[in-house]
Amino acid sequence: MQMNRGYHTINKVIACVLSFIFIIMAIAVPAHAEEEQAEATPSRIPLSKLEETIDAYVASYEKYTAAVSVVVIKDGEPIVNKAYGYADIENQRKADTSTVFEWASISKLLVYTSVMQLVEQGKLDLETDIKEYLPEGFFKKLKYDEPITLMNLMHHNAGWEDQTATEVYYYDENENVDLGEILRKNEPKQIYKPNSVVGYSNYSVGLAGYIVELVSGQPYYEYVNQHIFEPLHMNDTTVHPTGQDRPDLVHRRNEIEGYTKDLKRIPENRVYVTFYPTGAAIGTAEDLGKFLAALMPVDDSHVLFAKRDTLDEMLSTSLYYDETSTPRFAHGFVEMEYGVPTLMHEGNLKGFSSKVVFDPVSKFGMVVMTNIAFEEIYYYGLISKIFGNSTYVNSVTSEGGGYFQSARRPAARFTDLFRQLDITKFSKAELSSLYNVVEHNGVIEKISYTPYMDYLPVSKWKVNLIVISLIPVALAIIFSLGALIVNLIRMLINKLYKRGNPPTHFDKYHLAINFAGAVLPLNLLIIHTRLSSYPAYSSLRINLMFNLLYVVLAVAYLGLLIYKLRKSSYSKKQRVMYIMSGISAFILAAFVVGWHLYV
Description:
By secondary structure, the chain is α+β, with helices and mostly antiparallel strands. It contains 18 helices and 19 strands.
């Protein structure tokens, strides 16, 4: 009995000890898990293995790589800062951490930060009509009476049509760069009511930069130098429209070339941005990392703002996808759901792609900069590897897919034709994987294909009408080319054999209009082909002038034809040919005017 009591006592002691151990483990394991989670990327890669993972990733895609610079920030400090590949493949110039890349549209984050600094000082208000900050009569093409606010400029939903690539870029560093004058000169048409449609707008952000300039009393680039670059010790970056305030950086920028995805050098890959606050910054990835670290301070320090609340406000959601609680913009910063909710922005220029993604909660962020146009291996692939995949699934009730057109489009410019021909058809399955689908009673009203822009439905009737309208244009071109060939053959036969009907005085006009009609499609093809290389508008002016000249020739030909047919006698065959050429000229002239192919 005493021995049994002893065993019972021992068992109780053991049970108590084990219970205590289990309690300690229950408390310790979650704490350890949280600690482990804090030491890993959003995609669960341990930070201790992050550099090794990035090295291996780059090595596996080495043959597709020109130069890539990667900076990873954690708790305010860079834990990875490396460059790979070649800044100049032809001259075997390797990239390093001092290599200067083009920020492209990531430059817009400097505008949003500048605006919020002035909001904090009470000099700007996000909901005030921007006309109050601009010179009187600044706008000439507004269609709607609704006010446009700074928030609209940040959200790209002020309603403006898109600018053509030829208006966004230029190549001569000595061109006039007065921001206000350029914005006035290039004012786009307002085609949507403010707050109704998101359509990525360089003009909007350029305008916000100009407002910063007006309110601060400093040129925009000087404001950014003083209030962002200097406090953050970003000594290797400039946002001057041509970099003339930092010739050393321009020299370093000129040591790097831009390439296509198949690593072919892009000629003239140094372009300047017309609305320069939207994309003119050049600098190192390391400097961009400093800016990123300032957006995720580890303590109460907040270098960019006088109050931490202002930073928190800037990085808080300011626009949701329509009829959802899914964040879309945080005062211009794009909100994106990867393995964790993040803020990000992308940038693309003629030979450069860049991206910055960060999670303010875990204070983890990443910069990727490359010298490859519309690059995807690092821009998307590496980001997804570190942050996890991004997926959006919608419940679409409509019977099927449909045709859609980007809200980011020109409406009264020569590129409108090429954008209309780029109407996209989405199946129901494809619609379900997009960011957001707005539909009522099974009818889709809008889709968000990317965070930066909405796509609007296009009726099948309109699609068919566009296609059908091109048929008479094609026939007119074929007739002009055929008539030109027949005329030339007839002239050659007459000259060689002195036979056939003698030429009439009107034949030279007939020959001229058919020659112009045959050249017109070739001229349009040249324009379309060159658009992908971001030509300066001035370099396309001769092509657009030819289109306008064709319209003038067509009108002159039709007027002269009517006069000649009343005053002169021609054979039935001649009259038919002259009239058919007149109809073809009318069709082609209407085509040029209707699609604004001369402006």
